[in-house]
Each structure stands twice: as C-alpha cells, then as structure tokens.
Write a structure and sequence with these properties.
The structure is a single chain. The protein contains eight helices and eleven strands. It is of the alpha/beta class. The protein folds into two domains: 142 residues; 90 residues, Sulfite Reductase Hemoprotein, domain 1. The strands form three sheets. A five-stranded mixed β-sheet has the order 7-8-9-10-11. Strands 2-1-6-5 form a four-stranded parallel β-sheet. The longest helix is centred in the middle third of the chain and has 17 residues.
C-alpha cells in the first residue's frame, strides 16, 4: 500500500489531487493541518459492501488492502461503513468518507461540518476507520482542518491540547468559564495533552475520563490537582493553582515552552 495504517499508526488524513494542487504552495505554513495522502494515488479499492462477490474478492487478496465504500452505493454513510467493517477481513484498513455523493456539494459550511462530524465521528467512535477523507466541505484548507478536528474530538488523533470541562452546576466552586480561559491561555500550545477542568470533587473526577491532568474545585477558593484520576495536590489557593498545574505538567515531562510569536515580514 505504501503507507502504514491501523494498529499504533495514527489515523491518516486524505485529500484529493485537486485539493492537494490548490494547497501545495502553502503546506509549509499549514502547521498540523497538512494533507498526508492523495486519494487518487493511494491504491484504495472501492466496493459495495452489499456485493458478496466484491467482498469475497477483497478477502481473497494475499495481503492487506486499503478499502472504502464506492461512491454512489446508495446507502447512508454510517450504515455502509459499518457493513464494510463487518464483512471485510480485519487486516484490511478502511478509508472513511464523510459522503458517498459528491455530485451535490454542500455550499453551507455549517451543513458540511455537521455532515462530516456526524458521519465520521460516529464511525471513529465505533472503532472503525484507519484514514479519513472530508469532501462535504469544499474549501481545501477548511476540509483538512475539519478532518483533524473530528479526529481530535473522537479521541483518535490528538494534535493539540485537549480540554474537558464540566457544564457547571450549583456545586461549582469557581468561575468555570474564566478559569478555563486562563488555563487555555497558559497551556494551549501543548500538543497531545488532555486537561480536565472540573467544578467540584463530587462528580468531577468521574467525568474526567482519560485526562492526563485535572484541575478540580476542592473547597471554596481551593483547588485539587490530579494526574489521571489520582489527586496529587490538595487545597491549593485558587490564585496559585494555574501555575501549580503548569509545574505539575512540567514534573511529568509533558511541558514545553510556548514558541515565540511569529515576526511579521514586510
């Protein structure tokens, strides 16, 4: 196949040749949102998962083969890829597509976002998919940003700081919105770190899921800090807590200094 998929490899982000051409001059400045593989050059095999002959031919191949659902299959995206994943051998990596009908592009950005997030996000959360291709969003750069953000939201590829915050309730012991903004301002440059901001110790630790670090209200004006689901620092004054969180991240080897701001060029 020429590319590594599945297992410990990250979920790959595909684009089309036309979009690659449109972006090629600016990939150096795209940061984490670069296109990785051109779909037309990937060797992907597109089949109708309802066709027994096509599925049998795929599974008789001697080695793994990148596979996807053929455009125009006439099925809903989620159902089609679930059927493909059920019938194709597990050794075959799957390229997910957010739409199987590119004849009617969505001009509305919100509709494109919702379509892509619903279809790709549902499948990724099912554990299906080794690569993704966003086509509902027609802008080349936006389609890549959307793909990466869906991977981040689904927990399948973390490329920037990930935050988990509770919705706030009567038990919340600090201003959740202001505190979250302060934490984001100090830690938003970190890559691959999950930080939970929870208002209280009643439900907070249970809602932190798989966060690396937690900032949790322990008492009025007091904060407890967590590593994973284990509390390690207790009753820290609120005005010191963000810096102590940074110190804790540094202690665990996940801190890097923020890069200097880019210098504008004439």
């Amino acid at each position: 196949m020429g590319h590594d998929f599945g297992g410990e490899h990250p979920v790959r982000v595909f684009t089309t040749q036309a979009r690659w051409n449109a972006l090629a001059h600016g990939t150096a400045g795209m940061g984490d949102f670069k296109p990785e593989i051109i779909v037309e050059k990937s060797g992907v095999v597109a089949i109708d998962p309802r066709d027994p002959a096509a599925v049998d031919a795929l599974n008789r191949r001697p080695g793994p083969c990148l596979v996807t659902v053929a455009d125009g299959t006439g099925m809903e995206v989620i159902a089609a890829f679930r059927l493909l994943a059920a019938r194709a051998d597990a050794r075959h990596p799957v390229l997910l597509k957010d739409t199987l009908d590119v004849s009617h592009p969505q001009d509305d950005a919100t509709s494109a976002l919702l379509t892509s997030a619903r279809n790709l996000g549902s499948l990724l959360c099912d554990g299906i998919g080794d690569a993704v291709l966003v086509r509902s969003e027609t802008d080349p750069g936006q389609s890549l940003r959307l793909a990466y953000n869906i991977l981040q939201a689904a927990g399948r590829r973390i490329f920037k700081t990930d935050y988990v915050a509770c919705p706030s309730c009567g038990r919340t012991l600090f201003n959740l919105q202001q505190t979250t903004r302060k934490i984001r301002a100090s830690t938003g440059h970190l890559k691959g770190v999950r930080i939970a901001v929870m208002g209280c110790i009643v439900n907070g630790p249970g809602e932190m899921a798989d966060a690396d670090f937690g900032y949790v209200g322990g008492a009025p004006n007091k904060i407890n800090l967590y590593v994973g689901k284990t509390a390690v620092k207790f009753n820290i004054p609120e005005d010191e807590a963000v810096q102590r969180l940074i110190d804790l991240i540094r202690e665990h080897g996940k801190w890097v200094d923020a890069p200097p701001p880019a210098t504008p060029q004439a």
